[in-house]
Write a structure and sequence with these properties.
This protein is α/β, with parallel strands linked by helices. It folds into two domains: 88 residues, Beta Barrel (Elongation Factor Tu (Ef-tu), domain 3), CATH 2.40.30.10; 158 residues, 3-Layer(aba) Sandwich (Rossmann fold). The chain is built from five helices and 16 strands. The chain has a seven-stranded antiparallel sheet. It is globular and about 50 Å long. The structure holds flavin-adenine dinucleotide and FE2/S2 (inorganic) cluster. The site of FE2/S2 (inorganic) cluster has 12 residues, from loops.
């Protein structure tokens, strides 16, 4: 059940260029893939914004975010002790979504992350553990391969791609599929990343008629995060679905681009 509570920033680290890991007071009982809606108490940032819950333990929860516009710029300047209002946990996480799509307990999982998409996948990797988790992690440059040292310890195999070749293989995550990693070696593929990457994966699955289940977390624009404003509806085979309540995790077989 979603709870609304007042919290405050207890720690803030710039972990990569314009990318911040912020810890806030209060533990959130969440399922990997669920998110928080956060609002700050000033004019720009009073509108709540969604962020994946990165971890929650020892009386705090955290989010990992990149500065994209006015809101995230303001949040990046939040001081220790700054008050925030939080709605959490929101949405349907990866575990519940796997049950919905009748995917049984996987033994071998391929994760595909694009840039900040790692924020949503990190707790899922943590949940399933190293022995079950392989990761393809892509970005525009090495700056997007966030927390590489920590993440590489959490997976049994890691393939990195960057579009400028500054880290790992030059190219995009799809360039690794079939050439270095076969989706058929896995029980399920879980992904999160920019809209363009998710659409490309969806096309790739359909074009190659891959029958390994692919689930992805979608980062739609959200107004309320609570199923009230209908601003986050996505096209699905049997009519629109709300990304903030039914999602953000969907099966590729259900979504229509
Ligand atoms: C369920 C969910 C979970 C999310 N989890 C995270 C997370 O863990 N970490 C995180 O950094 N972000 C996450 N996001 C995205 C985050 O909510 C947005 O980055 C944020 O709302 C941007 O607000 P803004 O006002 O700073 O920028 P805006 O003014 O809203 O956007 C500025 C510009 O950046 C572009 N932009 C905004 N967000 C993104 C994006 N994610 N990727 C590429 N371009 C973008 C916009 O199209 C626009 O051109 C999540 C979104 C959803 C729906
Ligand atoms: S964001 Fe308001 S209904 Fe989904």
């Amino acid at each position: 059940m979603v709870k609304v509570f007042e919290s405050s920033v207890v720690k803030k680290d710039e972990v990569a260029s314009s990318t911040f890991l912020v810890e806030m007071e209060g533990e959130v009982d969440f399922e990997p893939g669920q998110f928080v809606m956060i609002s700050l108490q000033n004019e720009i940032s009073v509108i709540p914004k969604p962020f994946s819950i990165f971890y929650s333990k020892d009386g705090v929860f955290s989010v990992l975010f990149k500065v994209f516009g006015a809101w995230t710029d303001r949040f990046s300047k939040a001081g220790i002790g700054e008050k925030v209002r939080v709605y959490a946990p929101c949405g349907t996480g990866f575990l519940t979504a796997m049950k919905r799509y009748e995917i049984s307990e996987p033994k071998n999982i391929l994760f595909i992350a694009g840039g900040l998409g790692i924020a949503s996948l990190y707790p899922v990797i943590d949940f399933f553990g190293k022995s079950k988790s392989s990761l393809i992690f892509g970005g525009r440059s090495s700056q997007d391969i966030i927390l590489k040292d920590i993440i590489s310890e959490k997976v049994k195999s890691l393939h990195i791609t960057t579009q400028d070749g500054s880290e790992g293989k030059r190219g995009v995550v799809l360039d690794v599929l079939f050439k270095e990693v076969s989706p058929y070696d896995f029980d399920v593929v879980l992904s999160c990343g920019p809209h363009g990457m998710i659409k490309a994966l969806w096309d790739f699955w359909n074009k190659n008629k891959i029958d390994v289940p692919l689930l992805f977390a979608m980062e739609e624009r959200m107004g309320c995060g609570l199923g009230l404003c209908f601003s986050c509806a996505v096209k699905a085979r049997h009519g629109p679905k709300l990304c903030c309540t039914y999602g953000p995790v969907f099966s590729h077989s259900e979504i229509v681009f």
